[in-house]
Amino acid sequence: MTEYNLSARPTHSLWNRALPPRLTIEPGDTVHFECLDSSAAQVHPEMTLPEYLKIDRGLIHALTGPVFVSGAEPGDVLQIDVLEVAHKGWGWTSVVEGLGFLKQRFSDPFLFLWKLDREVSRSLAPAVVPLRPFCGIMGVAPDVDGEFRTRPPGIFGGNMDVRELCSGATLYLPVLNSGAIFSVGDAHAAQGDGEVCINGIECPVDATLRFHLHKRRPLPGPIVESTPHIKQDLETAWIVIESGTDATSAARAATSRMIDLLVDRWGFRDVHAYLLCSVALHLKFSQVVNEPMFTVSAAIPKGVLPPRRIF
Fold first, then answer.
1. In angstroms, rounded to a whole number, what is the distance separating the alpha carbons of residues 219 and 231?
2. What is the rounded distance in angstroms from the CA atom of residue 201 to the CA atom of residue 187?
3. What whole-number distance in Å separates Cα of residue 283 and Cα of residue 297?
4. Which strand ranges, in their side-by-side order, compose the sheet holding 294-301?
5. Mind listing the pLDDT tens digit for each residue in 199-228?
């Protein structure tokens, strides 16, 4: 079992099974990946909004890889053990015109820079945001020729933004090409369910992953085996509930109402409340069985906010 170090550069921002591998490993090997933030290091801790608006969005996602896993063939399963994901002390979250879950309400561009302690960030006072670094993109190359943007996820994994893929988790992916052709990036120090304003806390990380191979075990899509982690008790949370025949509209309404609650009761600016929801909100279906009516809950754990009575 060998350990390798793989630098971030040169990164890539397109899926392409013809990309030459930067590293070839054996099953059982461990790789220490250096990952830039999703902007490919265009954003920096002193950046201004006018500077941010000029970044090259064609570089977004900035993946490290690809890695070729010897012996991997279509029909196999690639197992990725997430041994550690470590942030580097800073991150950023933005609002981009035309993007985000509430793009009609928040159309003005905005950039927020975070300072990250080991386990929390206090940058968005009075909130204390727990950190759980993970890589938003972990995937193998799709099984078709050509270049494809990294934004849509698929059976190959990719831009899943599953916040449970933190240190201690395991990801299982179907192998679609010889060697699997694995890449990783788009790391977040924290992210709420839904990632509602388009970003979590985007940040550079060092990710340590161990690879295993399961031969001739077809898999129709990604599976995540999560692990206990620093966790707020959702039984003690502020929860906004909305129901409707259109689940998306209900989720938007619940998110917007949570923003209003944060503004009204905790004194946040509305855009700061939007950012906080993007990195700490738990946005989930509460029920889908009473069709055609769906119920969505938007919850922020009480541990994120100072104690307060709202009525």
1. 30
2. 8
3. 6
4. 237-244, 294-301, 282-287
5. 999 999 999 999 999 999 889 899 898 876
